[in-house]
Amino acid sequence: MSHHGLLLTDEHLQMLREADGKVGEGRERVLSSAERLLDEPVAEPDLDRPWGPYLSCASERMGEIQRCSLAYLLTGREEFHYRAKATVDAILAWESWIDPCHVRPQQRFGLMTGIVCQSLAHYLDWCADAVDEDEFREIADHHRAKAVEPLLHDMDIPKRFFRDGVNNWVAVMVGGAGLMSLVLMDREPMYEHLLERCVFHLRRYLTWVNNDGSTDEGGHYWAFGMEHALPLMEALRVNAHRLPGALRWRSAHELERIPALAKTAYFPLYCIQGDTYVVNFGDTHLREASRMEAPLRCLAGRYRDPHIQWLADRLASDSPLALIWHDAELPSEPPTDLQPSRAFHGAGWGIVRSDLDDPDGFLLAVRAGHNAKTHCHRDLGTFILRAARRGLIVDPGCPQYCDDYWIHGAFTYGRETIGHNCVLIDGEGQSRGEEQRAEITRLEDLGDRKYMTVEVRAEEIGLALHRRAFDVMLRETPTVTISDEVRLTRPAVITWLLHYDPEAEVEVREDCIIIRNGPVVLNICAAPSEPVSVRVEAEHEVPFVAIESAEPMDYATLELACSVEA
Question: Which of left, alpha, beta for 122 (phi over 0: left; psi -120 to 50: alpha)?
Answer without folding.
Answer: alpha
